[in-house]
Amino acid sequence: MRGPLAPPPVPIALTRAQRFDDLAADVVERLAKRWPQLEEVRFAVLDVPEAETAVNGDEAVALGRLVPATKAVPATIILYRRPLELRAEGRAELEMLVNDVLVEQVADLLGMDPDTIDPDD
Question: Which residues of the chain have pLDDT under 50?
Fold first, then answer.
């Protein structure tokens, strides 16, 4: 028998990247409800950082990045899927890590403390 084990709409049929995208979208949606300023912000997921952003201070590999807005392009917050997945030991830890990275990037963007952005964190 050849073909997928589960039909496409079944969650088991989602790829690792699709599950990560869904997780990130859930966190963004929760933050956007609290901070309407995020409506203008773009959010993206890349597998790995570009070569010029790979090294970020104390970390060997960047987990996320804020690209400031210009006159023509709104601000963009980027998550790097593979480095985040490699640091998490399970789904729950990955959820917390994605949340932490997004909260830090949103805090930088809005010029606020991360505890103000997500006091439940």
Answer: none
